[in-house]
Every structure is written in C-alpha cells, then in structure tokens.
Amino acid sequence: MLELRPNCECCDRDLPPEAADAVICTFECTFCSDCAKGVLGGTCPNCGGNFSARPIRPAAMLAKYPASTKRVLKAEGCAPLPRNAA
Q: Which Gene3D superfamilies does this entry report, sorted A to Z (predicted)?
C-alpha cells in the first residue's frame, strides 16, 4: 500500500493525500509536479526513474488506511542524477 508521503522531498511543499500535483517514482519518492518537471527534469534524483501521478486514496479508505506523517527531505538539496549514475 502506498505511504502517501506528506511533502515534496525537494522543496518541502505540503502534499496532502488529496494533492493532485504529487508525483511518485517506483520507490515512492514523492515530489511536487513543479520540482519534478523543473529542477529534476522528470527524473527521480534518488533512483533515476521516471515519475507518475500519485493516486488519490478515497476518503473512506483514507480513514481506514491513513497517509504517512513522516516527512522526507533531501538535506543535501535537490538536483537530478547525472544521466549515467542510475
């Protein structure tokens, strides 16, 4: 089950479970669409994968399976991986 992390790892923008601008990679690294398209150029800086829109969990399921409250932020800043690093 997806964690639905609460923030962008790059800029720390709040991304509540219903956020339509949240994107994730296959490892659930979570970013806002502005950072994903902008500074990251569509590539996850952690794994080198691409992004997909994060699904929105229906309210009834959110009550039963709440979103994560653990914030993840890249302390060293946010920059894309070099093309050959992944």
A: Zinc/RING finger domain, C3HC4 (zinc finger) (3.30.40.10)
